[in-house]
Amino acid sequence: MTRLIDQEQENLWDSVQILSQINVEKAKSVFKVTIEKSLQQLGITSPIFSTIPLSVPNTDRLSQLRRIEKKMREAYAHQEKEKAYEYLVDYIEQLSQMAEDNPLAVRKKLLASLLAEHHKRKPKKYRLSSSSAPLLSKQVATAYYTTTEVAKKLGLSDQTIRRMCEKGKFPGAYKTDGGHWRIPQEIFITTSEQDERTEEVLKRIDIKNQKAGDVDEFDL
Q1: Where are the domains of the chain?
Q2: Of 17, 47, 129, 208, which has the most beta carbons under 10 Å away?
Q3: Where are the transmembrane segments (predicted)?
Q4: How far apart are CA 89 and CA 107, in angstroms?
Protein backbone atom coordinates (compact mmCIF):
# COMPACT_ATOMS: atom_id res chain seq x y z
CA MET A 1 0.00 0.00 0.00
CA THR A 2 2.90 2.34 0.75
CA ARG A 3 4.15 1.74 -2.78
CA LEU A 4 0.78 2.76 -4.24
CA ILE A 5 0.72 5.94 -2.16
CA ASP A 6 4.27 6.76 -3.23
CA GLN A 7 3.32 6.30 -6.89
CA GLU A 8 0.32 8.60 -6.53
CA GLN A 9 2.48 11.25 -4.91
CA GLU A 10 5.06 10.98 -7.68
CA ASN A 11 2.26 11.38 -10.23
CA LEU A 12 1.17 14.58 -8.52
CA TRP A 13 4.70 15.99 -8.69
CA ASP A 14 4.87 15.09 -12.39
CA SER A 15 1.57 16.91 -12.94
CA VAL A 16 2.91 20.05 -11.26
CA GLN A 17 5.97 20.03 -13.50
CA ILE A 18 3.93 19.58 -16.69
CA LEU A 19 1.27 22.13 -15.75
CA SER A 20 3.87 24.73 -14.80
CA GLN A 21 4.71 24.96 -18.50
CA ILE A 22 1.10 25.10 -19.65
CA ASN A 23 -1.20 26.63 -17.06
CA VAL A 24 0.36 28.33 -14.04
CA GLU A 25 -2.89 28.69 -12.10
CA LYS A 26 -3.66 24.99 -12.51
CA ALA A 27 -0.09 24.20 -11.51
CA LYS A 28 -0.50 26.24 -8.32
CA SER A 29 -3.68 24.37 -7.45
CA VAL A 30 -2.12 20.93 -7.97
CA PHE A 31 1.04 22.09 -6.17
CA LYS A 32 -0.97 22.92 -3.04
CA VAL A 33 -2.78 19.59 -3.21
CA THR A 34 0.59 17.83 -3.47
CA ILE A 35 1.87 19.63 -0.38
CA GLU A 36 -1.27 18.87 1.62
CA LYS A 37 -1.08 15.20 0.67
CA SER A 38 2.57 15.10 1.72
CA LEU A 39 1.68 16.37 5.17
CA GLN A 40 -1.30 14.06 5.48
CA GLN A 41 1.08 11.11 5.31
CA LEU A 42 2.64 12.45 8.51
CA GLY A 43 -0.79 12.75 10.08
CA ILE A 44 -0.88 16.53 9.57
CA THR A 45 -4.07 18.01 8.15
CA SER A 46 -3.54 21.75 8.21
CA PRO A 47 -5.66 23.94 5.89
CA ILE A 48 -3.13 26.77 6.07
CA PHE A 49 -1.67 26.13 2.61
CA SER A 50 -4.94 26.99 0.89
CA THR A 51 -4.67 30.54 2.28
CA ILE A 52 -1.02 31.23 1.44
CA PRO A 53 -0.15 32.38 -2.09
CA LEU A 54 2.73 30.21 -3.30
CA SER A 55 4.50 30.59 -6.60
CA VAL A 56 5.17 27.54 -8.73
CA PRO A 57 8.84 26.57 -8.22
CA ASN A 58 11.27 26.36 -11.10
CA THR A 59 12.54 22.96 -12.20
CA ASP A 60 15.58 22.92 -9.90
CA ARG A 61 13.69 23.98 -6.80
CA LEU A 62 10.83 21.63 -7.61
CA SER A 63 13.29 18.73 -7.85
CA GLN A 64 14.88 19.71 -4.54
CA LEU A 65 11.51 19.97 -2.80
CA ARG A 66 10.48 16.65 -4.29
CA ARG A 67 13.62 14.93 -2.96
CA ILE A 68 13.06 16.30 0.54
CA GLU A 69 9.43 15.20 0.48
CA LYS A 70 10.40 11.70 -0.63
CA LYS A 71 12.99 11.36 2.14
CA MET A 72 10.42 12.62 4.62
CA ARG A 73 7.90 9.99 3.48
CA GLU A 74 10.46 7.19 3.59
CA ALA A 75 11.65 8.12 7.08
CA TYR A 76 8.11 8.25 8.40
CA ALA A 77 7.23 4.94 6.74
CA HIS A 78 10.20 3.33 8.52
CA GLN A 79 9.06 4.73 11.87
CA GLU A 80 11.98 7.17 11.95
CA LYS A 81 9.75 10.00 13.10
CA GLU A 82 12.47 12.27 14.44
CA LYS A 83 14.29 12.09 11.12
CA ALA A 84 11.01 12.63 9.25
CA TYR A 85 10.33 15.80 11.23
CA GLU A 86 13.83 17.05 10.50
CA TYR A 87 13.02 16.73 6.82
CA LEU A 88 9.71 18.44 7.54
CA VAL A 89 11.57 21.50 8.83
CA ASP A 90 13.61 21.57 5.60
CA TYR A 91 10.38 21.13 3.65
CA ILE A 92 8.76 24.12 5.36
CA GLU A 93 11.90 26.18 4.82
CA GLN A 94 11.81 25.48 1.09
CA LEU A 95 8.08 26.18 0.85
CA SER A 96 8.40 29.51 2.64
CA GLN A 97 10.94 30.60 0.02
CA MET A 98 8.24 30.09 -2.60
CA ALA A 99 5.84 32.49 -0.93
CA GLU A 100 4.84 35.37 -3.15
CA ASP A 101 5.23 37.82 -0.27
CA ASN A 102 7.36 37.96 2.92
CA PRO A 103 8.89 34.44 3.13
CA LEU A 104 9.96 34.91 6.77
CA ALA A 105 6.42 35.71 7.90
CA VAL A 106 5.08 32.77 5.89
CA ARG A 107 7.63 30.44 7.49
CA LYS A 108 6.50 31.50 10.97
CA LYS A 109 2.86 31.12 9.98
CA LEU A 110 3.42 27.62 8.61
CA LEU A 111 5.32 26.42 11.66
CA ALA A 112 2.77 27.95 14.02
CA SER A 113 -0.05 26.28 12.13
CA LEU A 114 1.61 22.87 12.25
CA LEU A 115 2.30 23.20 15.98
CA ALA A 116 -1.30 24.21 16.60
CA GLU A 117 -2.51 21.24 14.57
CA HIS A 118 -0.24 18.90 16.54
CA HIS A 119 -1.56 20.28 19.84
CA LYS A 120 -5.15 19.91 18.66
CA ARG A 121 -4.54 16.25 17.84
CA LYS A 122 -3.44 15.36 21.38
CA PRO A 123 -5.92 12.96 22.97
CA LYS A 124 -8.26 14.46 25.52
CA LYS A 125 -9.98 12.68 28.35
CA TYR A 126 -13.75 12.91 28.48
CA ARG A 127 -16.33 11.47 30.78
CA LEU A 128 -19.09 10.02 28.66
CA SER A 129 -22.64 9.79 29.83
CA SER A 130 -24.72 6.74 29.01
CA SER A 131 -26.72 8.82 26.51
CA SER A 132 -23.61 9.57 24.46
CA ALA A 133 -22.47 5.94 24.22
CA PRO A 134 -24.50 5.10 21.09
CA LEU A 135 -22.61 7.81 19.23
CA LEU A 136 -19.40 5.82 19.58
CA SER A 137 -20.76 2.98 17.50
CA LYS A 138 -21.97 5.20 14.69
CA GLN A 139 -19.94 4.52 11.55
CA VAL A 140 -18.97 7.19 9.08
CA ALA A 141 -20.14 6.48 5.54
CA THR A 142 -17.26 5.51 3.28
CA ALA A 143 -17.08 6.08 -0.48
CA TYR A 144 -15.80 3.24 -2.63
CA TYR A 145 -14.20 2.74 -6.03
CA THR A 146 -14.91 -0.13 -8.40
CA THR A 147 -12.00 -2.25 -9.62
CA THR A 148 -12.34 -0.60 -13.04
CA GLU A 149 -11.96 2.86 -11.51
CA VAL A 150 -8.91 1.82 -9.49
CA ALA A 151 -7.38 0.14 -12.55
CA LYS A 152 -7.72 3.40 -14.48
CA LYS A 153 -6.39 5.39 -11.52
CA LEU A 154 -3.25 3.26 -11.13
CA GLY A 155 -2.69 2.37 -14.77
CA LEU A 156 -3.16 -1.37 -14.18
CA SER A 157 -5.54 -3.95 -15.61
CA ASP A 158 -8.87 -4.71 -13.99
CA GLN A 159 -7.76 -8.32 -13.52
CA THR A 160 -4.64 -7.20 -11.65
CA ILE A 161 -6.71 -5.04 -9.30
CA ARG A 162 -9.06 -7.96 -8.57
CA ARG A 163 -6.09 -10.19 -7.75
CA MET A 164 -4.73 -7.50 -5.44
CA CYS A 165 -8.10 -7.37 -3.70
CA GLU A 166 -8.07 -11.12 -3.21
CA LYS A 167 -4.60 -10.90 -1.69
CA GLY A 168 -5.72 -8.19 0.73
CA LYS A 169 -3.63 -5.41 -0.80
CA PHE A 170 -6.40 -2.83 -0.33
CA PRO A 171 -7.40 -2.43 3.35
CA GLY A 172 -11.16 -2.26 3.77
CA ALA A 173 -11.97 -3.68 0.33
CA TYR A 174 -14.91 -6.07 0.24
CA LYS A 175 -16.83 -8.18 -2.25
CA THR A 176 -20.51 -7.45 -2.87
CA ASP A 177 -23.22 -10.10 -3.02
CA GLY A 178 -22.90 -9.91 -6.78
CA GLY A 179 -19.20 -10.77 -6.60
CA HIS A 180 -17.86 -7.29 -7.37
CA TRP A 181 -15.04 -5.74 -5.37
CA ARG A 182 -15.42 -2.35 -3.73
CA ILE A 183 -12.29 -0.45 -2.63
CA PRO A 184 -12.33 2.46 -0.12
CA GLN A 185 -11.50 5.80 -1.72
CA GLU A 186 -9.89 7.02 1.51
CA ILE A 187 -6.82 4.78 1.09
CA PHE A 188 -5.75 6.76 -1.96
CA ILE A 189 -4.04 10.15 -1.88
CA THR A 190 -6.02 11.82 -4.63
CA THR A 191 -9.80 12.01 -4.72
CA SER A 192 -11.94 11.11 -7.70
CA GLU A 193 -12.61 14.83 -8.25
CA GLN A 194 -8.88 15.57 -8.41
CA ASP A 195 -8.39 12.69 -10.83
CA GLU A 196 -11.13 14.08 -13.06
CA ARG A 197 -9.52 17.53 -13.09
CA THR A 198 -6.13 16.04 -13.94
CA GLU A 199 -7.65 13.93 -16.71
CA GLU A 200 -9.37 17.01 -18.11
CA VAL A 201 -6.06 18.87 -18.24
CA LEU A 202 -4.34 15.94 -19.95
CA LYS A 203 -7.14 15.76 -22.52
CA ARG A 204 -6.59 19.41 -23.31
CA ILE A 205 -2.89 18.70 -23.79
CA ASP A 206 -3.76 15.90 -26.21
CA ILE A 207 -6.09 18.17 -28.17
CA LYS A 208 -3.40 20.84 -28.44
CA ASN A 209 -0.88 18.24 -29.57
CA GLN A 210 -3.26 16.99 -32.24
CA LYS A 211 -3.82 20.50 -33.54
CA ALA A 212 -0.15 21.48 -33.42
CA GLY A 213 1.23 18.21 -34.75
CA ASP A 214 4.05 16.23 -33.21
CA VAL A 215 5.30 18.65 -30.56
CA ASP A 216 6.57 18.37 -27.04
CA GLU A 217 4.20 19.44 -24.27
CA PHE A 218 6.75 21.94 -23.00
CA ASP A 219 6.47 23.83 -26.30
CA LEU A 220 2.76 24.54 -25.73
Answers
A1: 2-119, 141-187
A2: 17
A3: none
A4: 10
